[in-house]
What we know:
Layout: H1 2-43, E1 62-65, H2 71-77, E2 89-94, E3 104-113, E4 126-135
Antiparallel strand pairs: 1-2, 2-3, 3-4
Amino acid sequence: MVVEGAVVLSVIVVVLLAGLDLSLAVLQYNTLSELSCKLSRQAIVHGEQAGKNNRSWGPQVYSSTADTNTEQAKLIRDLIVTFDPKDVHIRLEWMDGGNRLNHRVKVTVSADYVPIIRMPFSGSAYPLSASSVKRITY
């Protein structure tokens, strides 16, 4: 009876930890998705015709991490609650080659997810990435 209880209890603990691990991965993916949406909303108002209060972004590719002292990193740094900012990679691309009105901008935010439970024959980290594409409005 004790052996069966130990087997059942260990299976239940593994299932609960796997559920927790999956929940954390989903939370981190949703965080990256929110970061890419927020940054893309800012990018569409920093086009060629940005006003005096907004500096124009692009059309060169921007690539950095969230711990840098750039305008783009500062915009999302406060929303990063599940990652270390130095591990969050930001990439802005102007898909139509310019930052003029109605041109598209693509924002990709990525980071690695390190699971709580490491399975045999699996990697130590899984790449997560979220992208958002919007048209420039200003």
